[in-house]
Amino acid sequence: MIATHSLSDAFSPTECDRIRALADVAPAADARLVGTRRDHNQRRAELVWLDSVEGADWVMDRIVDVVRAANRAVFGFDLTEFAESAQVARYGAEREGHFDWHADIGDGPHARRRKLTMVVQLSPLSDYAGGTLEIMPSAGVIKAPRDQGTATLFPSFLLHRVTPVTEGARQSLTIWAHGPAFR
Ligand SMILES: O=C(O)CCC(=O)C(=O)O
Ligand SMILES: [Fe+2]
After folding, report:
1. What residue's CA is closest to ligand 1, atom 1?
2. Domain assignment present for 52
3. pLDDT tier at 167 (50, 70, 90 boundaries)?
4. Cα separations (Å) of 20 from 6, 25, 103, 142, 160?
5. Which has more pLDDT, 34 or 116?
6. What's 73's DSSP letter?
7. CATH number at residue 111
8. Residue 112 scores a pLDDT above 50
9. Please, which pLDDT band fits residue 35 given cuts at 50, 70 and 90?
10. Residue 38 pLDDT class (50, 70, 90 cuts)
11. Which of 100, 174, 175, 178 to mutate to test ligand 1, by most ligand atoms within 8 A of the CB atom?
12. Does ipTM top 0.85?
């Protein structure tokens, strides 16, 4: 079974910096989990929804291309739409930014239909320590490559986490692709 798929140059470092600059000037919200509950032990991060940011259409265009190609080549899921905005998250060492083990399939009308998750590493390696994205397809854990611009895709039902950032700050871009239930 194919668990995760990483792509080293989904975005160039310059493009990552442009996305970070867009997110940096947008008002950030505190991270909400699937639904509306806020639980800072589960997740500590600041979020910017890309659909509320002007000048970010090219980011969504690229996301669609990358997810489509990876799905065609690797996953073969029946995906019909991107029903939710892409999200830029910032995990800062000042409050040990992290996201504990979770799956992305939730209770909401959209979260329930998430099938494929893609996370792009927006920060250069030198910006932070900790903040590793780990995915658990079975007994072992897969560590997502950290290089700036690398995308990691995985089925949204897999458990994954971001370990606490201990120095600096890590930013990531997350998008979900949706479709009818697995069968
Ligand atoms: O920031 C990451 O690497 C993961 C984000 C995530 O798991 C989520 O938003 O559901
Ligand atoms: Fe997640």
Report:
1. 172
2. yes
3. very high
4. 21, 9, 25, 26, 23
5. 116
6. I
7. 2.60.120.620
8. yes
9. very low
10. low
11. 174
12. yes
Tell whether ligand 1 has an atom less than 6 A from the beta carbon of residue 89: yes
Mean pLDDT across 31-41: 59
CB 108 within 8 A of CB 35: yes
17 assigned to some structural domain: yes
Residue that has been written with the tokens 């998430």 in this structure: 114
Question: What is the Å distance from ligand 1's center to 97 Cα?
Answer: 12
Question: Could you tell me the residue range of the domain that residue 55 belongs to?
Answer: 5-178
**pLDDT over 80 at 128, yes or no:** yes
Task: Report the residue among 117, 141, 148, 161 best suited for mutation to probe ligand 1: largest number of ligand atoms under 8 A from its CB.
Answer: 117
Please tell me the total count of domains within the chain. 1
CB 169 within 8 A of CB 15: no
- Written as six digits, the tokens of 54 are 């002007």
Domain membership flag for residue 183: no
